[in-house]
Amino acid sequence: MSDRRPRAARRRRPEPPPAPATPESPAGASSAGGPSVIQATLYRDGREVSSPATLAETYRQLREHPDGMAWIGLHRPTEAELHSLAAEFDLHELAVEDALEAHQRPKLERYGDTLFVVLRAARYLDAQEEVDFGELHLFVGPDFLITVRHGAAPDLSAVRRRMEQNPDLLALGPEAVLYAILDAVVDGYAPVVAGVQNDVDEIETEVFGGDPAVSRRIYELSREMVEFQRATRPLVGMLHGLMAGFAKYGTDEELQRYLRDVADHVTHTSERVDGFRQALTEILTVNATLVTQQQNAEMRALAEAGFEQNEEIKKISSWAAILFAPTLVGTIYGMNFDNMPELHWAGGYPFAVVLMAVVCTSLYVVFKRKDWL
Q1: Which residue has the higher pLDDT, 337 or 73?
Q2: Which long-range contacts (CB under 8 A, 24 or more apart) does 289-295 make?
Q3: Which residues are 107's β-sheet partners?
Q4: Is 105 in a helix, a strand, or coil?
Q5: How many angstroms separate the CA atoms of 225 and 219, rounded?
Q6: Distance of CA 65 to CAs 8, 62, 163, 344, Å?
Q7: Which of 301, 310, 341, 348 is at 20 to 30 A from 214, Cα to Cα?
Q8: What are phi and psi for residue 146, nearest 5 degrees?
Q9: Mean pLDDT, to the nearest integer, of 279-302?
Q10: C-alpha distances in angstroms, 4 versus 24, 91, 141, 247, 248?
Q11: What value, to the nearest 5°, has the Cα angle with vertex 272 and ends 268 and 278?
């Protein structure tokens, strides 16, 4: 990437036609009606030379200053705009096809003297307590850097200001801008890590507090951590791949130190994300155990209530049977028939009373032995 050959020697089409979609439009227009070209700036020796209003003007000025560097920032560009850039800077058609569509995995691919880089940025939304992911595609050539942003994150204006305030670093060329963007994306993970750590702490409190809605929150945060892993894990390999090419591509020593620092940060972030996912898995297991214990306690309470109710029914039934026996005897002798035995027997009444007592006592003894009373 440090090759600074004249532009005409590196192009298959030294005089490409002007951009069809943005011939004279101010900064271009996306298919949605908003500006897709956020900013196009020409730099020379680390200092801004001009900020062309159109892609066509950017091409023209860069041809007039072969020792300059163009930094073009786009947000959801149209297909015509990307094809115009591909024709001007000889971008590979596969990389252009990937840049047109979001939802690409983080990766780094080299097409000749041009690098194509895909990054996944993240930001933590405090109000919603969730992680929002954005996607950034970069084309890095010997004298140009093109950023294609899908989503709100990351905001590269701070990176541009930072580089412009450090002309010595910016003078190192597109590689320096690439590493500054990598650093900004990785630094943007820090607030996300802090926000997720706070969410995990809150979830632990909710789990042991018996909040029934915590399971859904654990699941949603676990899904976000899967996306976070997909954003950070590939970066570790990408950065080590860049470091492996230091000697081959003659990377400046300052940039080498810069990239090693970024690699350390992304490794730390990746480890934290792995830890969050493991912690959420364990919390989900603990929550399931606590829910099961609570359900068992409720079932036990219901069983105990049912047992107590059954005991009460036994007692009621026993006393009902005991009281029914004398009622039956009394009912029989209360019938008004002329020809009934024992009606004129002198010992009939004592016999009936004794019979009632014997039956009631017998029933009481039977129920007592069965622990119904």
Answers
A1: 73
A2: 290/207, 290/208, 290/210, 291/215, 294/210
A3: 118
A4: coil
A5: 10
A6: 12, 5, 20, 141
A7: 301
A8: -120, 125
A9: 83
A10: 29, 17, 10, 17, 15
A11: 145
Long-range contacts of 131-138 (CB under 8 A, 24+ apart): 131/192, 131/195, 131/196, 131/224, 131/227, 131/228, 133/227, 133/231, 135/102, 135/103, 135/104, 136/181, 136/185, 137/98, 137/99, 137/104, 138/178, 138/181
> How does pLDDT run across 32-73, given as a tens digit for each residue?
444 566 788 999 998 999 999 888 899 999 998 888 999 999
Smallest CA-to-CA distance from 175 within 258, 94, 236, 112 is with: 258
Q: Is 251 exposed, middle or buried (0-12, 13-18, 19+ CB in 10 A)?
A: buried
Six-digit token string for 269: 């972030």
User: What is the Cα–Cα distance from 192 to 134, expressed in whole angstroms?
Assistant: 13
| Amino acid (1-letter code) at residue 165 | Q
Tokens for 19? 């951009």
Given this model, what pLDDT does residue 370 score?
Answer: 80
For residue 120, the cross-strand partners are 135
